[in-house]
Amino acid sequence: MASSExxxxxxxxxxxxxxxxxxxxxIPFIEPPLKEYVSSIMPSTIxxxxxxxxKPADESSxxxxxxxxxxVTNMGATALSLFENILRIVKIILWMTLIISIIxxxxxxxxxxxxxxxxxxxxxxxxxxxxxxxxxIVTFFIVFQGYYPNVPLAPIFxxxxxxxxxxxxxxxxxxxxxxxxxxxxxxESFQVGDVINVPNKGFGVVESVSWRGVKIRTFQxxxxxxxxxxxxxxxxxxxxxxxxxxxxxxxxTLYANSPTKxxxxxxxxxxxxxxxxxxxxxxxxxxxxGDNGIDWEVKYWIEDYSKYNDTDALIRERIWYAFQxxxxxxxxxxxxxxxxxxxxxxxxxxxxxxxxxxxNNVSIFSPLDDAEIESIATASLVRVFAPNxxxxxxxxxxxxxxxxxxxxxxxxxxxxxxxxxxxxxxxGEFFGxxxxxxxxxxxxxxxxxxxxxxxxxKHLCLKSILEENPELVESFSKxxxxxxxxxxxxxxxxxxxxxxxxxGVFNSIKKFFGLKN
Length: 517
Fold this sequence. Notes:
The protein is of the alpha+beta class and 517 residues long. The chain is 51% helix and 18% strand. It has helices spanning 2-53, 65-115, 121-147, 154-158, 161-170, 172-187, 228-231, 259-271, 308-325, 352-360, 370-379, 433-438, 459-468, 472-490, 502-513; strands at residues 195-198, 202-209, 213-218, 223-227, 237-239, 245-253, 283-289, 294-302, 381-385, 390-392, 400-406, 409-415, 418-425, 430-431, 445-448, 452-458. The strands form 4 sheets. It has a 5-stranded antiparallel sheet with strand order 4-3-2-1-5. A 4-stranded antiparallel sheet has the order 9-16-11-14. The protein has a 4-stranded antiparallel sheet with strand order 10-15-12-13, with no helix packed on it. The longest helix is centred in the first third of the chain and has 52 residues, at 2-53. The chain is elongated, with a radius of gyration of 44 Å.
């Protein structure tokens, strides 16, 4: 496909070069006969005209034969000189057409093939055009001087001081843009696709570079064109597209919140956000001990810098949800009189009765009596997750299970290296029970499909119940094993040769909770 396209582009150049070369080779052979024809046809025409016009009407009017021959000879020489000049001009045009075709062919073969797949293709095109123009001018001087050696070209372009000043002033901006573009290309300050910030001018993605200037697509989807001469005088901030560029997001917390806990929670939240590079661990650090609380900054490295606004906003959103889940609070300004903490519309507060009613309908807790379920409801944690936020990740160590109280989640695995959604869970359903009862690592990733509120039941919530009532272990093991077999049939990554083994789950539960045989 590429070779056929290349042949189509080369055919016109080859045809033009071959045709002009053939004409130039034929000119030396046809030039002498043409000259002889021109020199012979002009005098004969004039002589015949002169003989017919001589009449003896007036004896006083006399024509000297020598004057007539002189006139004919001068006119023949003038016609021959005119023909030679026309022929020289035709040769100059043919030679320049041939040279331009050859230079363009070389440009396409060398520069085009070498730089077409390169990020510097458009910038290098600027240098290529400049070199081509210089070659055109130099070859024109050489060809012209070859046919008109006695005609000096330099005085024509530089002889008039006034003309030189006028041309210099007229081309001042154009030449400034041209040479500034060459300097930018030589320095390789930025490439097409990079994000650049020109102070007091604009901020956006480099869309194209030409001899005149640079086109920048701003984040408001506007096109900003800045001339090279202006750009060469500015301090430009560049975020290369092939580089991991850092971003900093600020937030604050109350002095009552643990700094260690804050660092761990925020770092984990940021690390799991889209467009955050996993190659470098996010840095969460104290920026200042302010009047109202602790000022923080989180530094992360972004994969696609052109989406930094969306990524910053997503990180702030995830931090808010994480703070709601883990009972961390943002600092209030000192000028605000904070008398009572009132729940906002989007802060989720659940009563013990609602949690108790939800857990009573969970099938896995059917072996428990009302008092035992009430104990679990009291100790369970209410957590809220943002849309598309991961609740658990595959391979993560588990010691709790989750009951969906509001919203929905979906289970995701990786098949052939790509994420695959296999099941959606809704209100009242649960997941992660193997982590709660046996401490096994998570076998799949669970992601919130919408804003979702879950009840997290920790390992310690169930430990005291099983210690007082060990016979519940057998009931739990049967329920868990039945559910586990169903998951094995649905999740391709979990398909193994294992069969239902209640005894294995039974022993794992007793071992995990430290129950005696």
